[in-house]
Amino acid sequence: MIQVLIVEDQRMAREDMENYIQSSGRYCLAASITNAAMAETVCRQSGCELVLMDVCTENDESGLVAAEQIKRTMPQIKVIIVTSLVECSFIDRAHKAGVESFWYKDAGKEELLEVMDRTMKGESVYPDAPPVVMIGTAKSCDFTPGELAVLRLVVEGQSYKKIAENLSISPETVKWHIKNMLQKTNFDSKTKLAVAVTKKNLIINGF
Cα(16)–Cα(79) distance, rounded to whole angstroms? Predict the structure, then answer.
């Protein structure tokens, strides 16, 4: 049977995945840990063939960073990112890290096992886009890449000038993007906009 490592800090989600694996008849649990920083070491010790990797793990360790390290040092191990967060950058970052597949936790047991099966057969299984959430009166998919890049730095509390420097655009362009987003969402300040996208997990900095 195929040896699987689970990296998940939420107890209920971790136990659900453990039960899926143990009842599958074709996978067995190599190890189950809560901190992504330990994943590479456990991979070496356990001889696992597949990793189910959460993004935001114990002690604020990034599963995406850990996945990239595993794919760089042990490319034969297949990795599936598992998350319940709609953060707009996670899918793209997983692709860039060389991760084989990506799965949203809300999809359920059968779909996870199907993604695992397809991944182990050599397929790369990704959703077309993150789930859509409402930000004020706008859908999350209504924001352009340029607007999201500005919004990410607004969430960090950066000034117009600093955002412009970091994105190599003019302060006027920064203001234009923010004005457009406020019109789309019907918020009257960028602070309210930043609070809303943070609450909906559309932007999560640090992972």
Answer: 18
Q: Both tokens of residue 24?
A: 């599958």
| Cα 2 to Cα 196: distance, rounded to the nearest angstrom | 42
Rounded-to-integer distance, Cα 170 and Cα 163, Å: 9
Torsion of CA 54, 16, 100, 97, to 10 degrees: 0
Structurally, at CATH architecture level, domain 134-199 sits in Orthogonal Bundle (1.10)
Q: Which CATH code of 3.40.50.300, 3.50.30.50, 1.10.10.10, 3.40.50.2300 fits the domain covering 2-120?
A: 3.40.50.2300
Residue type, 118: R
pLDDT by residue, tens only, the chain of 207 residues:
999 999 999 999 999 999 999 999 999 999 999 999 999 999 999 999 999 999 999 999 999 999 999 999 999 999 999 998 888 899 999 999 999 999 998 776 679 999 999 999 999 999 988 889 999 999 999 999 999 999 999 999 999 999 999 999 999 999 999 999 999 999 999 999 999 999 999 998 877
Cβ 197 vs Cβ 135: under 8 Å: yes
pTM: 0.86
CB 51 within 8 A of CB 4: yes
